[in-house]
Amino acid sequence: MTTSTHTSSPTPIYEELVEEHGDILAEAREAAERSQQTASQALDWSDLRRRH
């Protein structure tokens, strides 16, 4: 049986996965924020009200 040397971290398994595969959760959060911002801009009708 092998033991991990990453015992100081409260979530050693997660830290190892991030090292191996990248921080997928952070990337997903960033993509969601960009999508939300794009949708907000696409649905912003305030410029139309100002023109009339």
How would you describe this structure to a colleague?
The structure is a single chain. 67% of the residues lie in helices and 0% in strands. The chain is mostly helical and 52 residues long. The chain is rod-shaped. The N and C termini lie far apart (73 Å). The mean pLDDT is 83.
Quick synopsis:
Residues 29-52 are annotated as: Disordered. By secondary structure, the protein is an all-alpha fold.
Largest sheet: none
The general outline is rod-shaped
Gyration radius, rounded: 21 Å
Distance from first to last alpha carbon: 73 Å
Number of helical stretches of at least 4 residues: 3
Could you outline the blueprint of secondary structure elements for this entry?
Elements: H1 12-21, H2 24-42, H3 46-51
Keywords for this structure?
52 residues, mainly alpha, 3 helices
